[in-house]
Design goal:
One of its GO terms (molecular function) is phosphopantothenoylcysteine decarboxylase activity. The chain has five helices and twelve strands. The protein is an alpha/beta fold. The strands form three sheets. The protein has an eight-stranded mixed sheet, sandwiched between helices. The structure holds cytidine-5'-monophosphate (C5P). Cytidine-5'-monophosphate binds next to helix 3 and strand 9.
């Protein structure tokens, strides 16, 4: 078992931040390091899966055996995700997608204006990439097993459960990012896994551990849910 647990499966993972241009030299982004998504990709490849890693701009090496698709913006990540969603068994949305982008990126560098102390940027909402994957149906009525992440600073369980239902996910990995040394940018993470399937609802609490260990535990649970309930 173990080694070949994901043999024959295609797992798609989004990772890292997205970068939303304001003009040719500036952008909106966030501090996501991509470490958790890259750990998931490494763990999935170890288990024998075919792995596609759709990554925003991060400075991490591509794990062995993983196909990396580099994107910058949320719209590019959305397009790559839609392209691969139809041909994968598990889709894991680990990316910290910018919720908004500039309505129009300026063609030329935005200049400081003499005598004007404020500048107004108009932003518009980006698509929800993982919710769009969860809403897909192929000709046979199927779609991949969809795993989302929820980073919260309070009411972890309630917010994560709401996200699980609202985005129609199969499983969610909820992190408390208010704990020092865990989550964003850190090497360790703790999580609460929650899922919904034909058997009802379930959960598993994963204590603080290196992100690669946590990634293995997340995949173990996703694979066992998928085996018990192959059609979503
Ligand atoms: O709503 P929130 O951003 O907290 O949800 C987090 C989950 O949704 C993560 O799995 C993240 O990758 C995904 N997400 C997405 N597209 C967005 C926003 C979030 O796929 N535009």
């Amino acid at each position: 078992k173990g080694q070949a647990a994901a043999q024959g499966l295609h797992i798609v993972i989004t990772a890292g931040p997205t970068r939303e241009p304001l003009d040719p030299v500036r952008y909106l982004s966030n501090h996501s390091s991509g470490k958790m998504g890259f750990a998931l990709a490494a763990a999935a490849a170890e288990l024998g899966a075919k792995v596609s890693l759709i990554s925003g701009p991060v400075s991490l090496p591509t794990p062995a055996g993983v196909t990396r698709i580099e994107v910058e913006t949320a719209l590019q990540m959305h397009e790559a995700s839609q392209q691969l969603a139809g041909e994968c068994d598990i889709f894991i949305g680990c990316a910290a997608v910018a919720d908004y982008r500039a309505e129009t990126a300026a063609e030329h560098k935005i200049k400081k204006r003499e005598g004007e102390e404020t500048l107004t940027l108009r932003l518009i909402k980006n698509p929800d990439i993982i919710a769009a994957v969860a809403d897909r149906r192929d000709a046979a009525g199927g779609r991949p097993f969809v795993v989302g992440f929820a980073a919260e600073t309070r009411d972890l369980e309630a917010y994560a459960r709401d996200k699980l239902e609202r985005k129609r996910l199969d499983m969610i990995v909820a992190n408390d990012v208010s704990t020092a040394g865990l989550g964003f940018g850190a090497d360790d993470n703790a999580a609460l896994l929650m899922w919904r399937d034909g058997q009802g609802e379930g959960g598993e609490s994963l204590p603080p551990q290196p992100k690669l260990e946590l990634a293995r535990a997340v995949l173990r649970q996703a694979l066992s849910r998928l085996a018990e309930h192959p059609v979503h």
